[in-house]
C-alpha cells in the first residue's frame, strides 16, 4: 500500500483548492519537495490504511490477495490462496527521490513485523499425484522494498488525467517463520512437496515465491493508485500558476 500512499501524497504537490484538509499541500517548486512528499506520506499512511470512502480507497490493513501462483503447469499447481497480510502500514521511508519532470519516483522502504495468513493449495505429481491444502501462518521481520514508480498523462473526453503507468517492486525478504496446522505424516508430505517444487532451504523458498508476491502487489497498487488519481484532472493536479 505504500505506493498508493505515495501516489496520494504526490497529488498533494499539485492540488490546491480541491484537496481534503487532511492533506498538506507541497509546492511543485518547493526546494524541499522530496521531504515535503515524505512528510505527507507519513501523515497519510494511517488514513489510507483505514480507507477513505470519498476517494474510493477501501481499508487496506490487512491486505487480501486472492491468489499467488508459485507454479502452474499441467502436472504441478502450487497456489497460495486468500493471503491476508497485516503490518504493511507499519513502514519507514529510508530514502525518497523524485524526478518531477519525468514523473519518476524512487523509494526505499523497510517494514516492521509482517504477518501473512494464507491457504496453500498444492496439487503436484511426485511419482503419484499428491494434493494438499491447508492453513499456513507466516511472520517475517525487516522486509525491505525498493520501489520505482512512473506516472504519465493521458487525454480523455478533452481533459487530461494523470495515471500510474508502471511500478517496479524489489522485495528483500531475509527470513521467515512458518507454522502449519498438520500432524506429523501430513507435515512430512508437505515438506516433500516443498523440497521438490519450491526449495530446500529458506533462501530458495523465498526466491521461488518472491516474484509472485511482487507481481500481485504491484498490480494491486496500480489499481488502487489509479482509482485515486482518476478523481483529478491534470489541470487540477498542475494548476497553471507558479
Ligand atoms: C493470522 O492468524 C492469527 C492466528 O489465528 C491471528 O491472530 C492474526 O490476527 C491473523 N492475521 C491476519 C493478517 O489475518
From TrEMBL:
InterPro entries: Haemolymph_juvenile_hormone-bd, To_sf. The keyword Signal applies. Residues 1-17 form the signal peptide. Pfam families: JHBP. One of its GO terms (cellular component) is extracellular space. The lineage of its organism: Eukaryota, Metazoa, Ecdysozoa, Arthropoda, Hexapoda. This is Protein takeout-like. Keywords: Signal. It comes from the Eukaryota. Coiled coil: none annotated.
Amino acid at each position: 500500500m505504500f505506493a498508493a500512499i505515495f501516489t496520494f501524497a504526490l497529488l498533494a504537490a499539485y492540488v490546491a483548492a480541491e484537496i481534503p484538509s487532511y492533506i498538506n499541500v507541497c509546492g511543485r517548486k518547493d526546494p524541499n519537495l522530496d521531504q515535503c512528499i515524505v512528510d505527507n506520506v507519513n501523515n497519510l499512511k494511517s488514513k489510507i490504511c483505514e480507507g477513505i470512502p470519498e476517494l474510493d480507497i477501501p481499508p487496506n490493513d490487512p491486505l487480501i490477495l486472492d491468489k499467488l501462483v508459485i507454479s502452474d503447469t499441467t502436472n504441478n499447481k502450487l497456489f497460495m490462496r486468500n493471503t491476508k497480510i497485516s503490518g504493511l502500514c507499519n513502514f519507514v521511508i529510508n530514502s525518497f527521490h523524485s524526478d518531477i519532470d519525468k514523473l519518476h519516483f524512487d523509494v526505499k522502504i523497510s517494514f516492521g513485523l509482517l504477518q501473512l495468513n494464507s491457504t496453500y493449495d498444492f496439487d503436484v505429481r511426485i511419482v503419484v499425484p499428491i494434493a494438499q491444502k491447508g492453513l499456513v501462518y507466516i511472520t517475517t521481520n525487516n522486509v525491505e522494498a525498493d520501489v520505482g514508480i512512473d506516472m504519465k498523462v493521458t487525454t480523455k473526453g478533452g481533459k487530461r488525467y494523470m495515471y500510474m503507468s508502471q511500478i517496479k517492486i524489489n522485495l528483500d525478504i531475509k527470513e521467515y517463520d512458518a507454522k502449519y496446522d498438520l500432524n506429523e505424516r501430513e507435515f512430512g508430505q508437505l515438506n516433500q512437496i516443498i523440497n521438490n517444487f519450491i526449495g530446500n532451504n529458506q533462501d530458495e523458498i523465498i526466491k521461488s515465491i518472491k516474484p509472485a508476491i511482487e507481481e500481485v502487489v504491484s498490480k494491486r497498487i496500480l489499481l488502487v493508485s489509479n482509482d485515486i488519481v482518476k478523481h483529478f484532472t491534470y489541470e487540477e493536479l498542475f494548476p497553471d500558476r507558479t
